[in-house]
C-alpha cells in the first residue's frame, strides 16, 4: 500500500473537488435561472418605476429645461439667472445685473410659451408667484433698462427676497427643497433652513398622525386578536377550522366591500345609530358622528387588518405545549400568574410578527381613510394622492412617498430579521 | 377548553366572560360583512333597516337594486325584456362592461403571475439558490410597499414609455396587477414546496425522465393545490384592486372596484350594496375552494391532523 496522498478523482480521472464544485455551480445556476424571469419582471415593472419616481423628488426641471411636447426638443431656460446665482453667494441683494438676467430669461420664456411652467415651479415654494411670471413674460419685450425699476413697476413682489431665494433653489434641477418642504422646512432669504410659518405646517403633523393612528390600530388589533387566537389555538382542530372561517372570510372579502359595510353601519342614519336610538340609549337628535372622522378610520381599519394579527398569533399559539401551563398550575401558580409568566412570554414572537405586519400595512393605507376618513382621518398616503392628482406638485408627492417608503422598508427589514419573510402565511 | 372540575368560582366566571368576549369579537369580524346582504334587498333608498324590513313585510324587500345594476347605462332600459333588451344590457350596461374588464384583466394578470411565480418558487425552494433571502425580499415587496407608492411610480413609468400608444388594451393594468399578485403566488407555492422530498425528482431522473417531464408528472401534481390557491389569491388581488386602476387606467378601462369607488364617492346608492353582496358570495365560494385545496395538499403530503 502506498500512502502518498493521491487526490480523489471521479471515474473519468478529474479531481473530485473540482467536479463537485462544478456540479454545485451548475445547480446554483439552474436555481437562479428559474428565478431570473420573475426577478427581471419585478425589477422592470416595480423596482425601476419606484426608483424613477424617487428620482423626481430630487430632480425637477420646471425652472431649468423646457421640453416641446410635440417635437421632444429640449431647450434650457433661465440660463442668465442661473449664471448670476452661480456668481453670487446666497443672500446677495439682487442688483441691476440680476434683474437684467431675469428680464432676458423672461423674453426666452415668452418665445417658448413656458412662463406657466417656470411660474408653477416657483409657485410650489411661494404661492401666488405663478401669475407674476405669466404677467411679466407677456410684457417681457417691452421691458427696458433699468430693469429693476421696470420689473418692480410691473409687480413690487419682484423685489421679495423670498422669491429670489425660491428662484435660486429652482435654478438647479437637482434640489433637496422638496424634502425640506415634506418636513415643513424651507430656506429663508439667506439660504438657512427654517420652519415654515405655523399655519402652513401640515406634513409633520400628518406623519405624526399616521404613526399614532397606526400604533393605535395595531394595539386594537392586538387586543381583539389575542383572545380569539387563543380560543382557536386551544380548541380541537375540527372546531377551530370552522371558527377560522369567520376570520378568513373578512380576509377574502373585497376591501371596498368591507369599507362600504362600515360606511353603512357608521353613518349617522346608519344601522348602529338606528339601533342605539331604537334601544333608547341615544336621543334621536344627538346621533354619534362616527364616520368622516378619525373614529371611522380607526374602526374600519382595525376590522380590516384584524386577520393579519390573528393568523400569526394563531400559528405561534398552536405550537405552545399546554403542559408548561399545567406544570405551573401544579406548582401552585394561580391561573393569572401562569398566564402572565408562562403562557404570555411564549406568544411574544407571534405578537411581534402580527404587530409589525399590521403596522406596516396600516402606515401605507389609502383606500379606507380616503372613503371614511373625512378631513381629520386622512393619512400620509392620501396626501401623496392629493399632490399627485389635485395640486400636481409631483416632486413633493415623490418626496413624501420617499419618506414613507423609507419607513416602510426599514420596518420590512426588521420584520425579515425578526420573523423571516418565509414565515409569512396566508390562512 | 373545557373547565376542570376543581376550578374556583372566580375562574368559572372568568371562563364564561372570556367566551362572551370571544363571541363578541367574532361578531365584530363577521357582522359588517353579513349586514349588507339583507340591506341590498331594501325597497327604500336607505342604508338602514326600514320598519317594514324589521317586520319581515315582503313589501320592505325588493330586487330593484339588482335590477338597477343590469339597466344602469343601457340605451333602452324600459323596453320589454326580450333578446334585444339583453343584447343592449350585454353591450351597454356599465356594470356588465366593468365586469368584463375586471375578468379580462384578472385572467391575464393571474396567468402571468402564476406562471412566473410558480417557476420562481421552484428555484427559490432549492437549497442551492444563491442570495435566497435578498431575492425573496424583493419578490415579496410589492405586497409590503404602500399601494399609493406603487401606483405613483407606475403612473410616471407608463407615461414615460407611452404604454397607452402600444395598442395593447389593458396592458399597463395587467402588468401592474401581475406584480401585485406575485407575492401571494410565491408565498403559497413555496409553502407547498416546504418538505418536498427532492429524492422524488432524482428518482424520476434516474428512470430517464427529462426535467420537463419530471416537473409535469412528479412535481406539478404535488404542488398543484398551492399553485391553484396562489392563482386564486392573485385573481382576487386583481379583482379588488382600485388604486392602480385609478392612476394608470384609461377612461374606458372601468373595472368593478373602480365603478364601486366612483359610486361610493359620488352618489352612494344601495346598488353598491347589491354589488357588494355579489362580491361577498364570490369570496365565500373562493374561500371554500382554497380551504378544500389546503386540506387536500396537507393530505397529499401526509401532514393532515386527521
From TrEMBL, chain A:
Q: What is the protein's membrane topology class?
A: Multi-pass membrane protein
* Record bears the keyword Membrane: yes
Q: Which PROSITE patterns match?
A: ABC_TM1
* Family note: Belongs to the binding-protein-dependent transport system permease family. CysTW subfamily.
From the Swiss-Prot or TrEMBL record, give the protein name.
ABC transporter permease
Q: Name one Pfam family in it.
A: BPD_transp_1
The portions of this protein that span the membrane are 31-55, 213-235, 242-265, 298-316, 350-372, 392-415
Principal subcellular localisation of the protein: membrane
Organism equals Ruegeria sp. PrR005
Instruction: Please give the biological process terms from Gene Ontology that the record holds.
Output: transmembrane transport
Q: What is the lineage of its organism?
A: Bacteria, Pseudomonadati, Pseudomonadota, Alphaproteobacteria, Rhodobacterales
Gene Ontology CC: plasma membrane
Indicate the segments forming the ABC transmembrane type-1 domain, all copies: 207-415
Alphabetically list the UniProt keywords: Cell membrane, Membrane, Transmembrane, Transmembrane helix, Transport
Enumerate the InterPro entries for this protein.
MetI-like, MetI-like_sf
Record has Lyase as a keyword: no
Q: Where in the cell is it found?
A: Cell membrane
TrEMBL record, chain B:
Where are the coiled-coil regions? none
Superkingdom of source: Bacteria
Q: GO biological process annotations for this chain's record?
A: transmembrane transport
Residue ranges constituting the ABC transmembrane type-1 domain according to the UniProt record: 99-290
Task: Give the subcellular location.
Answer: Cell inner membrane; Cell membrane
Per UniProt, the keywords (alphabetical) are:
Cell inner membrane, Cell membrane, Membrane, Transmembrane, Transmembrane helix, Transport
Membrane topology listed for this record? Multi-pass membrane protein
Q: Where are the transmembrane segments?
A: 16-41, 103-124, 136-158, 170-196, 222-248, 268-293
Under InterPro entries, the record lists: MetI-like, MetI-like_sf
Q: Which SUPFAM superfamilies match?
A: MetI-like (SSF161098)
Cross-referenced Pfam families, in alphabetical order? BPD_transp_1 (PF00528)
Q: Which GO terms describe its cellular component?
A: plasma membrane
The entry's family comment says: Belongs to the binding-protein-dependent transport system permease family.
Q: What is this protein called?
A: ABC transporter permease
- Give the organism, scientific name: Ruegeria sp. PrR005
Taxonomic classification: Bacteria, Pseudomonadati, Pseudomonadota, Alphaproteobacteria, Rhodobacterales
